[in-house]
What does this fold into?
Amino acid sequence: MESYINIANSKYLFICSAVLVCFVIMQSIIFLRMALKRGKELNISKDKMKKAFKSGIITSVVPSIAIVVALISLVPVLGIPVPWGRLSVIGSLTYEVMAAGIGASVMGVDGLGGSGYTAEVFASSVWVMCFGSIWAVSMVALFLKTFKKKVAEKRNIDKKWNEIFSSAAFIGVFSIFITEPIVQGGIALITLAAGAVLMAGMIAVMYATKVKWLRDFALPISMLGAMGCSILFSM
It folds into this structure.
């Protein structure tokens, strides 16, 4: 156990993760500058850009709370550098745990950090975590322009089809995270149901009171409320 943890917390992995995180921060700064420049070119008012910036902060910071919790839960098993670097890019506890578990299982070990979880098994977990996430990013890098061109062609032909396609794609992405809690039940299902009820309540309040500012806080309130319910029912 100690030997693989020492490797997991080695300075070389810290350096690799630090470089990765710095790249993400630099990329974010570049995109922010490009967005501000483009906003000025389109004569978008400063108030609108500030509002968009505020909405972006809210919708970024609140989900990051769950990522920090995920980091804390993975550190005892996989050390600090790997979860830190992985969650800074992917940000999905569900994927990281699943991929690391697959890497362990193919080496004949049941469970992360359990009996027989050696340095070799740790390496297998890390390789599966990294390689498993390459393909989705590669598909975007290689085929996004072609895909956008096809969607644009369809949009010009049939606007109704475009609305249906966009909604179906959006629902499909989130269905990945919805199906598992429904099947598992328990706390996961309670958390999902609490978030759905809170969001429905926020929408009802918005339509009833015409409170516009609530639109920016509906998602964070629902997420935090669902997390609170999960803690309450776990006690």
